[in-house]
């Protein structure tokens, strides 16, 4: 939310500077005639009001006083669980745990029993935690669970989390080499979701994704 406000403020400041420059060019008597004409032809756009949607108030107005029991339950889940800092902290701790377990697993070439127990235990704990995260966030959307996947701020991360959880259950219990390799890959991919808990990293990654999208279009043209 803070990043969106900052970007909107920067855009408004840029537009204000452009209008000021245009007015200076248009009304300065010392400017050449061609420059005044150029300034006069610049489009004059009205300043757009920056509207920041308060997600908390929006959900409260929709769910808190709803006559439907499920929506009131959804509000309680959002208010007391998924919207709390401790909830995100627990998820971040599980991401760090799975990162440590993956690193140990990659270095555990001798397959020591004690290390294997730790890796298996951490896998079960984090799977339960990530499943609970997806379930609670979907419940918190009330009768519109699709918003879990389409949310403007977290939709892409939520979709990524959901797919990893589903894929983890698909490979769970398989002891062949390909399944173990897939589970290790899923653990590594899970580390990418650490980005969503750090606003600065989110801005950087979002910029990189936009840049990659532009590069894709360029490659398609070539």
Concise account of the structure shown:
The chain has helices at 2-27, 33-41, 55-64, 69-82, 85-107, 113-139, 147-150, 155-171, 177-190, 199-221. It has 222 residues and is mostly helical.
What does this structure look like?
- With 222 residues, this protein is mostly helical.
- The protein has ten helices and no strands.
- It has helices at residues 2-27, 33-41, 55-64, 69-82, 85-107, 113-139, 147-150, 155-171, 177-190, 199-221.
- Helix 3 (55-64) runs antiparallel to helix 4 and helix 5 packs across helix 9 (177-190).
- Residues 1-7 and 47-52 have low confidence and may be disordered.
Provide the fold topology.
Layout: H1 2-27, H2 33-41, H3 55-64, H4 69-82, H5 85-107, H6 113-139, H7 147-150, H8 155-171, H9 177-190, H10 199-221
Helix pairs in contact: 1-2, 3-4, 4-6, 5-6, 5-9, 6-8, 8-9
Largest sheet: none
Mean pLDDT: 75
Low-pLDDT segments: 1-7, 47-52
Query: Helix/strand-derived class?
Result: mainly alpha
List the helices and strands in order. Answer: HHHHHHHHHH
- Continuous helix count: 10
- What level of helicity do the residues show? over 70%
């Amino acid at each position: 939310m803070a990043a969106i406000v900052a970007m909107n403020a920067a855009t408004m400041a840029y537009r204000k500077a452009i209008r000021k420059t245009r007015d200076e060019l248009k009304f300065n008597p010392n400017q050449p005639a061609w420059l005044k004409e150029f300034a006069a032809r610049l489009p004059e756009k009205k300043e757009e009001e920056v509207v920041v949607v308060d997600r908390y108030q929006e959900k409260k107005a929709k769910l808190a006083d709803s006559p439907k029991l499920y929506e009131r339950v959804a509000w309680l889940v959002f208010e007391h669980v998924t919207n709390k800092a401790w909830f995100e902290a627990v998820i971040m701790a599980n991401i760090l745990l799975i990162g440590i377990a993956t690193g140990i697993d990659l270095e555990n070439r001798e397959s020591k029993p004690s290390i294997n127990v730790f890796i298996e235990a951490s896998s079960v704990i984090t799977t339960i935690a990530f499943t609970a995260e997806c379930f609670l966030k979907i419940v918190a959307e009330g009768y519109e669970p699709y918003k879990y996947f389409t949310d403007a701020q977290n939709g892409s991360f939520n979709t990524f989390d959901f797919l990893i959880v589903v894929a983890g259950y698909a490979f769970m219990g398989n002891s062949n080499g390909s399944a173990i390799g897939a589970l290790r890959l899923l653990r590594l991919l899970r580390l990418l979701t650490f980005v969503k808990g750090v606003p600065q990293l989110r801005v950087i990654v979002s910029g990189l994704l936009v840049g990659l999208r532009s590069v894709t279009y360029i490659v398609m043209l070539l």
